[in-house]
Every structure is written in structure tokens, then in C-alpha cells.
Design goal:
10 strands; about 30% helix; disordered C terminus; alpha+beta; VC0467-like; globular; disordered N terminus
Length: about 240
Amino acid sequence: MSLSSAIGALLVAAVLGALAAGGLAAAGGPAGAGGPAWADRLAIHAPHAVGAGSSARPGFRPRRGMFLLAAPRLADPRFARTVVLLLEYDETGALGLVVNRPTRLPLRDALAVPLPGSGGHVVFAGGPVEHRRLIALLRSPDAVEDARHVFGDVHASGSIDTLRRMLERDASAADVHTYLGYAGWSPGQLDAELARGDWIVTPADAASIFDTPPADVWHDLMRRNAGRWVRSGPAGSA
């Protein structure tokens, strides 16, 4: 197994364990494993971590609960015109979910265990790593059991029981989104991409995740950040 594959496998197993003690897996995929925080697991395979003072350009700093907006110049088809919600960012790496790429796959068909109330929900493509792993974003003004608070009233969970409880509350697609796969960066990788101008960092908002039509999310956020983009020039302001 290559270093990047080892990092990806350990990262997703540990982040699901950190997000929740349960194991939410797509049909045909292995359940998530518990264990230490994902950052600790990743650090074992990535001793060359950069310090907090990265070379990213001035502006909003990346951290949990921030959006990464793909710069117009970013041509990589895996990330072109995407909006990524950061779930983790520190010296050991970063992890996020692409929030604006819905698939046609119904949630009920993606789950290894059928859940009442999953009808009407589709799965989003969360990123290019571990396509059989499922993570849920939940909108709730209250704390959510077995979920990690991301920002505001948005929480992330890898727990099948948490997803079941949310769906049993007759939660609509405006309250529950599920994602297959995730986006992951090894230590220093995201900082280098920010310095290169591949991404714009801006505070996340729940409406862009749950309410805005996915096809409009990137365009709306780019318009909202147009002043920063113009002032900073093509290199971006990350």
C-alpha cells in the first residue's frame, strides 16, 4: 500500500471513530472503526508536519467550520467549482466534505442497514477519498448525541444510530445531508494549495449547505466574496 493510500485508509477510519462511536458505512463497505482522534493516527504516517505559521496568503485562516471555495483557475475535475466544508485542520493535515455535488443515488440504496425516513434523501459526493464511507451533516439548534459540532447549528456524525434518530424526527433534506467519501490533505498540502491560490477561505453558513440549490452554491459564494477576489488578484486570498 502506498503512503497516500495508507494515510487515506487510516484517516477515514479514525475520523469516523472521532465523529461518533458507531459505524456508518455505505452498502458493501466496511463499518467505521473507533479509536484515537484521526489527527493522531495520521501523524504516525506524516512526521513532516508544518507549523502553524504556513505560507498561505493573508485572509481568513482555514479551520474547522470554514468553507474552501475552489478558485476559478482550479482545473482539477475532482474539485473544480466545489465548496468544501472543513471538518478538521491542524498541523497533522485537513479533512473536509464537498457540499455542492449531489448524486442521483438515493440514501436508502446507499445504506447497509435500511432506515425508515431515508426516502427523499439523496447522497452527495463528499470527495475523492474512500467512496464507500458515509458521513452525515446534521442541522440542529441543540447538541446532537454522537456527533461533532462543526459550526453554528451544523454537526457531523458517522453514527448509524444518530442518523436513525434524526430521520425518525421526520428530518427533511433541509436538516440531513449524507456524503460518500471525503477530501483529505496530508500535512502542509492544503497550505501549499492555499499559497498557490487554489482556494479561497471564507466562513461557512448552514444555508449554503442545506437550503441553497447545490448548482448555485459555488456561484453565490463567489459573488459574496468577489471583493476579496478582486482585491487579491488571480492568486486568491486564502
